[in-house]
Amino acid sequence: MMQLQAAVIGHGRQAVLSDLTLSFHPGEFVAIVGANGAGKTTLLRTLAGFLSPLAGEILLDGSPLRDISVRSRARKLAYVEGETPVFGSITVHDLVAQGRLPSRAWWEWSLRADDERVIEAALATCNLQALAGREFALLSSGERQRVLLAAAFAQATPYLLLDEPTSRLDVRYALEVLELLRQTADQGTTVITSMHDLDRAILFADRILVVGEHGLLVDAPPRQALSADVLERAYGVPFAIRYEGDRIWLAPGDTR
Amino acid sequence: MKNRQSAVCALALIGCFLALLLGASTGALHFSPHELWLILTGQRHDALARAFLELRLPRLCNAMLVGAALALAGALLQGLLRNPLVDPYLTGSSAGTTCALALAVAFGLDFAWWPLVGFFAALGTALVTLFLARSGQGISVTRFLLAGVSLSAFCAAVVTLVLTVAPSNSVQLSLAAWVGGSLAGRGWPECIFAARVLSVGAVFAFLLAPTLNALRLGESRAQALGIHPGMAQWAVLATASCLTAGAVSLAGMVGFVGLIVPHLARRWVGSDARWVFPVSMLLGAALVLLADALVRGLLPPLELPLGVLLAFLGVPLFLFLAYRERSLLT
């Protein structure tokens, strides 16, 4: 379990989100939504250990995150960010194979047989077998996003942190990726992702964190989290919300 | 891909051997392949054999070591800074060495001390560059480049000052020879020293290969894979600085090897550092062997400056590659 205890997060001395007390449980799919600049990426990078909390504590399976070495952290947390410019040429297979790096000793230069099995499974999960030999830089942005996701799957960690994983995917691939993340969560992995698409957050997440200018506005299951009042505070525009069976329709903008 | 990488590695090895053969036979004294065989198998013990074993052979070994060290340093720095235009001399080491030697000459230090002074000056300047470039737990690339360029400019100013107020022409000539780069007169003691530096540097470089591979996708990605970016930066820059210092102290300013060779290696074997490093070392060794053979063979008995010849070979080649591959310039 991952816990934030009265954590203040931000860059340098600038606090972005204050007094965060949260827990992320095994098998949970948590979506973080909010306006641009509200602190979604900062929160994810802090959970990944790239940024230290300005105050408070983050515990990973009971141990303070700051006391866990970078390498040990990489065996527990996989992090997928958005745009990743690559230096030099690298094939899809080799990039996904890098996900095995944290689980190899420093003297192990070659992949073991079980590494290859995990990589093949990750490629198959993300429907990338046909692209395994292709150059990463020459793929479409949607394909690149899936490759980065496969590399995170190859890392085989109990926690998966993703920064807007569907931002450059078309509707079909976005739904496929979210379905995949849902299945991953159902198998016991904690999935924490930032996203802009509220409709899909409602469909796939167990919990939604709404962050706004003044910090965390709400942490609740989708139906309770996305109220018209909360969304207006988060995004600064009025929302009309309509429930239809399991679906929720959101209409931002002028609701007259 | 692995077959291609192995083939390129084998070709680079053959190229290095051919360059070694050309270097062994070319110069004021010409040795045929048959003569070389007799000397190397101990069947010939005359003055010509001694000249080869005591003068030509250490020079060839030094050429290989300098080429391999500079190419490896270039591959390390280009990989770390994710920029194909980075040259090992950006650490300020060459400028620092020239500056220290200018001062050494001005104060009348014996030539025998030059390699040692050069090595520590190169290492010292690189460390000052790294110190100025530190940011938080790591190194700021922008600060690193700024510090390297600024220190180089400062050192160049000191050299110009020494040359302007130099008491004799011999000081200017000695310094000009150093700046031009040369392997003339370098024997076995220098070779053993360079071999030690390269061995240590190569071991560290190969240990750092997985780290550099992870850094291909940026610092965040590398960190997510368990790489400590600050420690990785220090380790790579210290290793590259040590290799550059070893090469500069041995041969003076030998440019373009560290810039062009890693670039060529990446084009042929991809960006996997486990292949880029050995191929760069072999190509770097071959290039400096070839250039040194030309230096000795073009206008005998006159020897052209090695750095000048490499610049004449390297600049057109680099510009050709850069303009053919537009992305390099953008």
Set down the secondary structure blueprint.
The complex is a heterodimer of chains A (256) and B (330).
Chain A: E1 2-11, E2 14-24, E3 29-34, H1 40-47, E4 55-60, E5 63-64, H2 70-76, E6 77-80, H3 92-97, H4 113-125, H5 141-155, E7 159-163, H6 171-186, E8 190-194, H7 198-204, E9 207-212, E10 215-220, H8 222-225, H9 228-235, E11 239-244, E12 247-252
Parallel strand pairs in A: 3-8, 3-9, 6-7, 7-8
Antiparallel strand pairs in A: 1-2, 1-4, 4-5, 9-10, 11-12
Helix pairs in contact in A: 4-5
Chain B: H1 2-25, H2 33-40, H3 47-81, H4 93-106, H5 114-133, E1 134-135, E2 138-139, H6 141-165, H7 169-180, H8 188-207, H9 209-215, H10 219-224, H11 229-251, H12 257-269, H13 273-297, H14 306-324
Antiparallel strand pairs in B: 1-2
Helix pairs in contact in B: 1-13, 3-8, 3-11, 3-12, 3-13, 4-5, 4-6, 4-7, 5-6, 5-11, 8-11, 12-13, 13-14
Characterise this structure.
The complex is a heterodimer of chains A (256) and B (330). Chain A is of the alpha/beta class. Chain A is 33% helix and 29% strand. Chain A is built from 9 helices and 12 strands. In chain A, a hairpin with a 2-residue loop joins β1 (2-11) and β2 (14-24). In chain A, α4 packs across α5. Chain A is globular and about 55 Å long. The termini of chain A are far apart. The relative contact order of chain A is 0.16. The mean pLDDT of chain A is 88. Chain B has a single domain (2-329), classed as ABC transporter involved in vitamin B12 uptake, BtuC. In chain B, β1 and β2 (138-139) form a beta hairpin. Chain B is globular, with a radius of gyration of 20 Å. Chain B has a two-stranded antiparallel sheet. Chain B has 330 residues and is an all-alpha fold. Chain B has helices at 2-25, 33-40, 47-81, 93-106, 114-133, 141-165, 169-180, 188-207, 209-215, 219-224, 229-251, 257-269, 273-297, 306-324; strands spanning 134-135, 138-139. At the A-B interface, α2 and β6 of A face α9 and α10 of B.
